[in-house]
Design a protein that fits this description.
Protein co-occurring with transport systems, Ribosomal Protein S5, domain 2, 32% helix, Ribosomal_Su5_D2-typ_SF, Alpha-Beta Plaits, 4-stranded antiparallel sheet, Impact_N_sf, 37% strand, 5 helices, 5-stranded antiparallel sheet, 11 strands, alpha+beta, single chain, Impact
Length: 204
């Protein structure tokens, strides 16, 4: 089972592709929500207020079956801008990402083929100038136990080299751990079978 995904860590530098006097500025951003997308688009429209089109595509979701996307032509001929941009998101296999290509019209019509090439190239350039990293898809668990059980819980955590992300160690203790998806079932069973210890999954 695949338990990794690729994304970018920060906004890409601005890139520029030119074709017959038209300018295409490309940008890539790490995003997780449509609100973030809308804020970025608003900022770019202020920054490029004399531009003609602000075309974009985004994709959210770490796991393929949960992924959703949108592609927007913003007034360009149908499927000549948004989908070529989205095609590059698929080609680079990245997610939780927004790519925007801003066009200044140069007075010469490029035709649908020319537009597809320009938007695709600007998106590709933005991705090539981004730092793409691979992350693991993790599950979060909370382990609950009384203080006297601390030693055996910590022993398992140490043996399995588990990532503790938070802990509340009082009379009744709670430790929050992050586990790679492929190892999650095994870790869950280990704690589930430990006497006087309760483990439950948290929604990511």
């Amino acid at each position: 089972m695949k338990d990794t995904y690729k994304s970018i860590t920060k906004a890409s530098p601005e890139v520029l592709f030119k074709d017959r006097n038209s300018k295409f500025f490309g940008y890539a951003y790490p995003v997780k929500t449509e609100d973030e997308v809308n804020e970025i688009l608003e900022d770019l429209k202020k920054q490029h207020h004399k531009a003609r089109h602000w075309c974009y595509a985004w994709q959210f979701g770490k796991e393929e079956e949960q992924q959703r996307y949108r592609a927007n032509d913003d007034g360009e001929p149908s499927n000549s801008a948004g989908m070529p941009i989205y095609g590059q998101i698929q080609s680079f296999e990245v997610t939780n990402i927004l790519i925007v290509v801003v066009r200044y019209f140069g007075g010469v019509k490029l035709g649908v083929g020319g537009l597809i090439n320009a938007y695709k190239t600007a998106a590709q350039m933005a991705l090539e100038s981004s730092e793409i990293i691979t992350r693991t898809i993790d599950e979060i668990f909370v382990i609950q136990f009384d203080y006297p059980e601390m030693n055996k819980v910590m022993q398992v955590i140490k043996q399995q080299n588990l990532n503790v992300i938070d802990q509340k160690l009082e009379l009744d203790c709670r430790i929050f751990i992050s586990v790679r998806k492929n190892e999650a079932e095994e870790i869950f069973t280990k704690f589930d079978n430990t006497y006087k210890v309760k483990i439950s999954r948290l929604e990511n």
